[in-house]
Write a structure and sequence with these properties.
Blueprint lengths: L1 H33 L2 H13 L4 H12 L2 H15 L2 H12 L1 H36 L1
Helix pairs in contact: 1-4, 1-5, 2-3, 5-6
């Protein structure tokens, strides 16, 4: 009888933790989508699909979009290892705010601009290193 109670308690505890993790994961996926990542993935699917013939485009798009749930799940795992459920809730609230929406809408362009600045800096840094290498 003691063993049965122990097993039931364990199963009940595991069930509660699984539900919490599921809620946490759903909220984390929501956060990821709110950051503008969903648009970036849709753009990638379209850009990569531009080489697909028109008569196969619909099938390609359907299959490509079918990979997104797994991708979001994997990304959520990364975020869930770094942030608590409370952290993610705060991030969701931020990205639902006006300033969060503004940041998400400009993030891709800002990242591209930052990469260009970084490349220029890297070239300048290489020139400095070459100057001291001789």
């Amino acid at each position: 009888m003691k063993n049965l109670l122990f097993v039931l308690a364990f199963v009940f505890t595991f069930s509660i933790n699984a539900q919490d993790t599921s809620k946490f994961k759903l909220q984390t996926v929501e956060f990821i989508k709110l950051t503008g990542t969903a648009d970036a993935f849709d753009n990638a699917i379209s850009q990569i699909g531009s080489m697909v013939p028109a008569d196969k485009k619909e099938a390609y798009t359907k299959e490509a979009k079918g990979t997104l749930d797994d991708l979001y799940s994997q990304l959520a795992d990364v975020y869930m290892n770094e942030f608590s459920e409370e952290d993610i809730a705060q991030l969701v609230a931020f990205y639902k705010s006006d300033i969060g929406k503004k940041l998400a809408s400009k993030q891709t362009a800002m990242t591209q601009a930052g990469m260009m600045i970084g490349q220029t800096w890297g070239m300048n840094l290489s020139q400095i290193a070459q100057k001291y290498s001789n």
